[in-house]
């Protein structure tokens, strides 16, 4: 018997990449799965089709599991509510939401269009809000429910050319933390994963030379989508875990720290602009996080890039 036997799980972005593996693994663990995917283009967010979601649902059914498909967009609250209603109607319940649906619209911030900013925020941050808001009252009323949302080291560490993506992904961290805090007394859990995996989104990054091509192929072999997907499914079943930020890089699992003060300075009397410049900032500068501090391997300080 799997760890999700008798449970119903909604997986967004379930037609490809990490979402696809989340859906397949959840089904192998006994869950009835509603596979959602817009079926958009390579970067997501474009007009799509029902094909990818239904293909994954059909694969689950062919293996003896129970699954249905949905091709609506997480950017619509009405669509998210319809997903919840579909799960309730088809499977008689909903116990977990895994939300890796995503898009990329990379570009330097000083050149970024409003459209590229809005699309990324809509899918990642508003999409996370929509699937949580559509299901939170159901979870609270039944005294049980799990959210597994997806952040990124592009937000946690920063990533040049991804201001929109980083902003959305850090917003998801804050959303998850508050959902976890407010839901604790009602059995509602929420965690986030910063995955590192080779997916079709990463495959859109331009490769300019043979060395980079070899690097990407090595990365593809080491960082496969099913690795963070296993963590996502485990978190869906882990009743005692909530409010945390995890990472998954190959066969490394990580638990991230969350922002807390690292040093406090007190003034005699009151800080002034002059004393902050002359005293406070120089004293704190030794604890500043360098702009280029982005570990690229999980063996470095226990962190991973992605």
SSE layout:
Layout: E1 8-11, H1 17-28, E2 32-36, H2 51-62, E3 67-70, H3 77-91, E4 96-99, H4 114-142, E5 145-150, H5 153-156, H6 163-183, E6 188-196, H7 210-222, H8 226-237, E7 245-249, E8 252-255, H9 273-284
Parallel strand pairs: 1-2, 1-4, 2-3, 4-5, 5-6, 6-7
Antiparallel strand pairs: 7-8
Helix pairs in contact: 1-2, 1-8, 3-4, 4-6
Features:
single chain; 306 residues; alpha/beta; Rossmann fold; 8 strands; 13% strand
Write a structural description:
- The chain is α/β, with parallel strands linked by helices.
- The chain has a single domain, classed as 3-Layer(aba) Sandwich (Rossmann fold), CATH 3.40.50.
- It has nine helices and eight strands.
- An eight-stranded mixed β-sheet has the order 3-2-1-4-5-6-7-8, with helices on both faces.
- α1 packs parallel to α2.
- The longest helix has 29 residues, at 114-142.
- The radius of gyration is 20 Å and the shape is globular.
- The two termini are 33 Å apart.
Number of strands: 8
Shape: globular
Count every helix, treating DSSP H or I runs of 4 or more residues as helices: 9
* Helical content class: 40-55%
Order of helices and strands: EHEHEHEHEHHEHHEEH
Major sheet attributes: 8 strands, mixed
Strands of the largest sheet, in order across it?
3-2-1-4-5-6-7-8
Q: Given this structure, which CATH class is correct?
A: Alpha Beta
Would you tell me the overall average pLDDT? 90
Low-confidence stretches: 301-306
